[in-house]
Design goal:
Elements: H1 3-11, H2 18-24, H3 28-33, H4 36-41, H5 47-61, E1 70-73, E2 76-77, E3 88-89, E4 92-95, H6 101-112, H7 135-148, E5 155-157, E6 160-161, E7 176-177, H8 189-197, H9 213-216, E8 248-254, E9 261-264, E10 281-283, E11 292-293, E12 297-299
Parallel strand pairs: 8-11
Antiparallel strand pairs: 1-4, 2-3, 4-12, 5-6, 5-7, 8-9, 9-10
Protein backbone atom coordinates (compact mmCIF):
# COMPACT_ATOMS: atom_id res chain seq x y z
CA UNK A 1 0.00 0.00 0.00
CA UNK A 2 1.33 3.46 -0.91
CA UNK A 3 2.32 6.22 1.48
CA UNK A 4 -0.47 8.57 0.39
CA UNK A 5 -3.23 6.30 1.69
CA UNK A 6 -1.44 5.95 5.03
CA UNK A 7 -0.99 9.72 5.21
CA UNK A 8 -4.66 10.43 4.57
CA UNK A 9 -5.86 7.80 7.04
CA UNK A 10 -3.57 9.21 9.73
CA UNK A 11 -4.68 12.77 9.03
CA UNK A 12 -8.34 11.77 9.27
CA UNK A 13 -7.68 9.74 12.46
CA UNK A 14 -8.87 6.60 10.70
CA UNK A 15 -5.74 4.51 11.28
CA UNK A 16 -7.97 1.63 12.32
CA UNK A 17 -8.96 1.19 8.67
CA UNK A 18 -5.43 0.51 7.44
CA UNK A 19 -5.73 -3.29 7.88
CA UNK A 20 -8.81 -3.35 5.61
CA UNK A 21 -6.96 -1.59 2.80
CA UNK A 22 -3.73 -3.54 3.35
CA UNK A 23 -5.56 -6.86 3.22
CA UNK A 24 -7.28 -5.99 -0.07
CA UNK A 25 -4.17 -4.45 -1.64
CA UNK A 26 -5.79 -1.07 -2.24
CA UNK A 27 -3.42 1.40 -3.92
CA UNK A 28 -3.77 5.11 -4.59
CA UNK A 29 -4.88 4.42 -8.17
CA UNK A 30 -7.57 2.04 -6.97
CA UNK A 31 -8.66 4.40 -4.20
CA UNK A 32 -9.31 7.12 -6.77
CA UNK A 33 -12.01 4.97 -8.37
CA UNK A 34 -13.74 3.61 -5.25
CA UNK A 35 -17.36 4.50 -4.55
CA UNK A 36 -19.27 4.51 -1.29
CA UNK A 37 -20.49 0.98 -1.93
CA UNK A 38 -16.94 -0.20 -2.68
CA UNK A 39 -15.72 1.17 0.66
CA UNK A 40 -18.56 -0.57 2.45
CA UNK A 41 -17.63 -3.84 0.77
CA UNK A 42 -14.04 -3.36 1.95
CA UNK A 43 -15.28 -3.27 5.54
CA UNK A 44 -15.75 0.46 6.20
CA UNK A 45 -19.12 0.10 7.90
CA UNK A 46 -19.65 3.62 9.26
CA UNK A 47 -21.23 6.03 6.79
CA UNK A 48 -19.41 8.99 8.33
CA UNK A 49 -16.03 7.32 7.84
CA UNK A 50 -16.82 6.48 4.22
CA UNK A 51 -17.84 10.07 3.50
CA UNK A 52 -14.68 11.44 5.12
CA UNK A 53 -12.55 9.12 3.02
CA UNK A 54 -14.29 9.97 -0.25
CA UNK A 55 -13.83 13.68 0.38
CA UNK A 56 -10.24 13.35 1.65
CA UNK A 57 -9.06 11.31 -1.32
CA UNK A 58 -11.07 13.45 -3.73
CA UNK A 59 -9.19 16.56 -2.58
CA UNK A 60 -5.92 14.91 -3.52
CA UNK A 61 -7.05 13.37 -6.80
CA UNK A 62 -8.82 16.22 -8.58
CA UNK A 63 -5.75 17.31 -10.55
CA UNK A 64 -6.63 19.98 -13.09
CA UNK A 65 -10.37 19.40 -12.70
CA UNK A 66 -12.06 22.34 -10.98
CA UNK A 67 -15.53 21.42 -9.66
CA UNK A 68 -16.28 25.12 -9.05
CA UNK A 69 -15.60 26.25 -12.64
CA UNK A 70 -18.22 28.56 -14.11
CA UNK A 71 -19.12 29.27 -17.73
CA UNK A 72 -20.15 32.71 -18.90
CA UNK A 73 -23.40 32.63 -20.86
CA UNK A 74 -24.09 35.54 -23.17
CA UNK A 75 -27.58 37.00 -23.37
CA UNK A 76 -30.12 36.57 -26.14
CA UNK A 77 -33.66 35.43 -26.94
CA UNK A 78 -35.08 31.95 -26.62
CA UNK A 79 -35.61 30.19 -29.98
CA UNK A 80 -38.99 29.49 -31.53
CA UNK A 81 -38.90 25.77 -30.64
CA UNK A 82 -38.78 26.55 -26.91
CA UNK A 83 -41.86 26.95 -24.75
CA UNK A 84 -40.22 30.24 -23.74
CA UNK A 85 -39.87 31.44 -27.34
CA UNK A 86 -38.94 35.11 -27.66
CA UNK A 87 -38.14 35.69 -23.99
CA UNK A 88 -34.92 37.68 -23.54
CA UNK A 89 -32.20 36.46 -21.17
CA UNK A 90 -29.48 38.64 -19.67
CA UNK A 91 -25.91 37.37 -19.52
CA UNK A 92 -25.02 35.29 -16.44
CA UNK A 93 -22.65 32.59 -15.17
CA UNK A 94 -23.51 28.96 -14.55
CA UNK A 95 -21.55 26.00 -13.19
CA UNK A 96 -19.77 23.93 -15.81
CA UNK A 97 -20.70 20.86 -13.76
CA UNK A 98 -23.41 19.80 -11.34
CA UNK A 99 -22.30 20.36 -7.74
CA UNK A 100 -20.06 17.44 -6.80
CA UNK A 101 -19.96 15.57 -3.52
CA UNK A 102 -16.54 17.05 -2.79
CA UNK A 103 -17.70 20.64 -3.25
CA UNK A 104 -20.96 19.97 -1.40
CA UNK A 105 -19.12 18.60 1.64
CA UNK A 106 -16.55 21.40 1.63
CA UNK A 107 -19.28 24.04 1.92
CA UNK A 108 -21.64 22.04 4.14
CA UNK A 109 -18.92 21.37 6.72
CA UNK A 110 -18.22 25.11 6.87
CA UNK A 111 -21.94 25.85 7.17
CA UNK A 112 -22.40 23.72 10.29
CA UNK A 113 -20.46 26.22 12.37
CA UNK A 114 -22.22 29.23 10.89
CA UNK A 115 -25.86 28.66 11.78
CA UNK A 116 -26.95 26.56 8.83
CA UNK A 117 -28.86 23.30 8.93
CA UNK A 118 -28.38 21.45 5.65
CA UNK A 119 -28.96 17.73 5.20
CA UNK A 120 -25.94 15.65 4.29
CA UNK A 121 -27.03 14.42 0.86
CA UNK A 122 -25.51 11.41 -0.89
CA UNK A 123 -22.91 10.76 -3.56
CA UNK A 124 -20.91 7.85 -4.91
CA UNK A 125 -17.57 9.62 -5.00
CA UNK A 126 -15.87 12.99 -4.71
CA UNK A 127 -16.37 13.84 -8.38
CA UNK A 128 -19.90 12.43 -8.61
CA UNK A 129 -22.88 14.78 -8.42
CA UNK A 130 -24.38 15.26 -4.98
CA UNK A 131 -27.90 13.82 -4.79
CA UNK A 132 -30.60 13.27 -2.16
CA UNK A 133 -30.75 17.03 -1.66
CA UNK A 134 -34.03 18.89 -1.55
CA UNK A 135 -34.70 22.24 -3.22
CA UNK A 136 -34.48 23.74 0.29
CA UNK A 137 -31.07 22.11 0.83
CA UNK A 138 -29.81 23.47 -2.48
CA UNK A 139 -30.99 27.01 -1.75
CA UNK A 140 -29.46 27.04 1.75
CA UNK A 141 -26.23 25.60 0.38
CA UNK A 142 -26.05 28.41 -2.18
CA UNK A 143 -26.34 30.91 0.69
CA UNK A 144 -23.62 29.10 2.64
CA UNK A 145 -21.25 29.10 -0.36
CA UNK A 146 -21.89 32.82 -0.83
CA UNK A 147 -21.16 33.66 2.79
CA UNK A 148 -18.12 31.37 2.82
CA UNK A 149 -16.71 33.45 -0.06
CA UNK A 150 -17.76 36.79 1.47
CA UNK A 151 -20.52 37.38 -1.08
CA UNK A 152 -23.99 38.65 -0.28
CA UNK A 153 -26.39 35.67 -0.13
CA UNK A 154 -29.33 35.60 -2.52
CA UNK A 155 -32.06 33.96 -0.41
CA UNK A 156 -34.05 35.15 2.57
CA UNK A 157 -37.22 34.49 4.54
CA UNK A 158 -39.02 37.45 6.13
CA UNK A 159 -36.03 39.65 5.39
CA UNK A 160 -33.50 37.37 7.11
CA UNK A 161 -30.87 35.23 5.39
CA UNK A 162 -32.21 31.72 4.91
CA UNK A 163 -30.05 29.43 7.06
CA UNK A 164 -32.23 26.59 8.29
CA UNK A 165 -35.67 25.03 8.26
CA UNK A 166 -37.88 23.48 5.60
CA UNK A 167 -41.47 24.36 4.87
CA UNK A 168 -43.01 21.30 3.30
CA UNK A 169 -44.29 20.69 -0.21
CA UNK A 170 -46.04 24.06 -0.45
CA UNK A 171 -43.56 26.28 1.38
CA UNK A 172 -41.09 27.22 -1.34
CA UNK A 173 -42.99 30.45 -1.94
CA UNK A 174 -41.83 31.64 1.50
CA UNK A 175 -38.25 31.84 0.23
CA UNK A 176 -37.44 35.12 -1.46
CA UNK A 177 -34.56 35.81 -3.85
CA UNK A 178 -32.73 39.09 -4.27
CA UNK A 179 -32.07 39.14 -8.04
CA UNK A 180 -29.41 41.84 -7.78
CA UNK A 181 -26.87 40.21 -5.46
CA UNK A 182 -23.56 38.69 -6.50
CA UNK A 183 -23.99 35.52 -4.43
CA UNK A 184 -24.65 32.02 -5.71
CA UNK A 185 -28.15 30.90 -6.59
CA UNK A 186 -30.09 28.30 -8.53
CA UNK A 187 -30.53 29.14 -12.20
CA UNK A 188 -33.98 30.13 -13.33
CA UNK A 189 -35.64 27.58 -15.56
CA UNK A 190 -35.18 29.85 -18.58
CA UNK A 191 -31.50 30.41 -17.75
CA UNK A 192 -31.01 26.68 -17.37
CA UNK A 193 -32.56 25.93 -20.76
CA UNK A 194 -30.71 28.78 -22.48
CA UNK A 195 -27.39 27.47 -21.13
CA UNK A 196 -28.27 23.86 -22.02
CA UNK A 197 -29.04 24.94 -25.60
CA UNK A 198 -25.63 26.59 -25.85
CA UNK A 199 -26.79 30.18 -25.37
CA UNK A 200 -25.82 32.50 -28.23
CA UNK A 201 -23.47 29.79 -29.57
CA UNK A 202 -26.26 27.23 -29.94
CA UNK A 203 -26.12 24.87 -32.91
CA UNK A 204 -29.71 23.78 -32.30
CA UNK A 205 -28.99 20.34 -30.89
CA UNK A 206 -31.80 18.28 -29.38
CA UNK A 207 -29.64 17.34 -26.39
CA UNK A 208 -27.17 19.64 -24.66
CA UNK A 209 -24.23 19.56 -27.06
CA UNK A 210 -25.32 16.89 -29.55
CA UNK A 211 -28.18 15.15 -31.29
CA UNK A 212 -26.68 11.85 -30.13
CA UNK A 213 -27.44 11.36 -26.41
CA UNK A 214 -24.62 8.84 -25.97
CA UNK A 215 -22.08 11.58 -26.63
CA UNK A 216 -23.33 13.97 -23.96
CA UNK A 217 -25.59 12.08 -21.55
CA UNK A 218 -25.65 9.27 -19.03
CA UNK A 219 -29.10 7.71 -19.42
CA UNK A 220 -30.87 4.40 -18.91
CA UNK A 221 -29.20 2.72 -21.88
CA UNK A 222 -25.57 3.50 -21.00
CA UNK A 223 -25.33 4.42 -17.30
CA UNK A 224 -25.21 0.92 -15.77
CA UNK A 225 -27.93 2.08 -13.35
CA UNK A 226 -26.07 4.83 -11.56
CA UNK A 227 -24.76 8.39 -11.69
CA UNK A 228 -21.26 8.96 -13.06
CA UNK A 229 -18.44 11.34 -12.25
CA UNK A 230 -19.17 14.71 -13.82
CA UNK A 231 -17.42 15.99 -16.91
CA UNK A 232 -16.83 12.63 -18.59
CA UNK A 233 -19.16 13.26 -21.51
CA UNK A 234 -18.70 15.81 -24.29
CA UNK A 235 -19.57 19.39 -23.24
CA UNK A 236 -22.00 21.62 -25.09
CA UNK A 237 -21.14 24.69 -27.15
CA UNK A 238 -20.37 26.71 -24.00
CA UNK A 239 -18.13 24.08 -22.43
CA UNK A 240 -20.84 23.00 -19.97
CA UNK A 241 -21.12 19.31 -19.06
CA UNK A 242 -23.94 16.99 -17.94
CA UNK A 243 -26.94 19.13 -18.80
CA UNK A 244 -28.51 16.08 -20.42
CA UNK A 245 -28.64 12.96 -18.27
CA UNK A 246 -26.62 11.98 -15.17
CA UNK A 247 -28.87 13.78 -12.63
CA UNK A 248 -31.88 16.08 -12.82
CA UNK A 249 -31.13 19.61 -11.61
CA UNK A 250 -33.19 21.87 -9.38
CA UNK A 251 -34.13 25.27 -10.80
CA UNK A 252 -35.43 28.27 -8.88
CA UNK A 253 -38.86 28.38 -10.56
CA UNK A 254 -42.11 26.90 -9.37
CA UNK A 255 -44.55 25.19 -11.73
CA UNK A 256 -48.07 26.31 -12.57
CA UNK A 257 -49.38 25.13 -9.19
CA UNK A 258 -47.05 27.57 -7.41
CA UNK A 259 -45.78 24.77 -5.18
CA UNK A 260 -43.64 22.18 -6.97
CA UNK A 261 -40.25 23.33 -8.25
CA UNK A 262 -38.83 22.72 -11.69
CA UNK A 263 -36.14 20.12 -12.35
CA UNK A 264 -34.46 19.88 -15.74
CA UNK A 265 -32.09 17.71 -17.73
CA UNK A 266 -33.04 14.07 -17.26
CA UNK A 267 -31.01 11.51 -15.33
CA UNK A 268 -29.14 8.22 -15.46
CA UNK A 269 -32.35 6.24 -15.00
CA UNK A 270 -34.53 8.04 -17.56
CA UNK A 271 -35.10 7.16 -21.19
CA UNK A 272 -32.86 9.35 -23.29
CA UNK A 273 -35.80 11.45 -24.57
CA UNK A 274 -36.15 13.10 -21.16
CA UNK A 275 -32.66 14.55 -21.50
CA UNK A 276 -33.64 16.83 -24.37
CA UNK A 277 -33.13 20.50 -23.59
CA UNK A 278 -36.84 21.33 -23.89
CA UNK A 279 -38.16 18.67 -21.48
CA UNK A 280 -39.80 20.06 -18.31
CA UNK A 281 -40.96 18.41 -15.10
CA UNK A 282 -41.46 19.40 -11.44
CA UNK A 283 -41.05 17.90 -7.99
CA UNK A 284 -42.00 18.93 -4.47
CA UNK A 285 -39.29 21.17 -2.96
CA UNK A 286 -38.85 18.82 0.00
CA UNK A 287 -38.16 15.82 -2.28
CA UNK A 288 -34.85 13.97 -1.99
CA UNK A 289 -34.00 11.43 -4.69
CA UNK A 290 -30.93 9.62 -5.98
CA UNK A 291 -31.59 11.19 -9.37
CA UNK A 292 -31.81 14.89 -8.40
CA UNK A 293 -28.89 17.27 -7.84
CA UNK A 294 -28.26 20.87 -8.94
CA UNK A 295 -25.75 23.36 -10.29
CA UNK A 296 -25.21 26.98 -9.31
CA UNK A 297 -25.66 30.23 -11.21
CA UNK A 298 -24.43 33.76 -10.56
CA UNK A 299 -25.06 37.24 -11.90
CA UNK A 300 -22.34 38.90 -13.94
Amino acid sequence: MTTNIHTVLEREHLDNLMPFFDKQGVTDDIMETLTDQDLKALGVEKLGERRRLLVAFGEGQEGSFDPTAMAQVGGGSMPTESQFAGITIEAFRIGKYPVTQLEWERVRIWSVGHGFKIESGEGNGSRHPITHVSWYDAVKWCNAKSMMEALKPAYSINGKTYLNGEYGPDGSTLVEMNPAVEGYRLPSEIEWEWAARGGPLSQGFQFSGSDNPDKVAWHDKNSNAGAHAVGQKKPNELGIHDMSGNVWEWCWDKDETGAACRIRGGSWMQVDGQGVVAYRVSRSPDSRYTVIGFRVAQNL
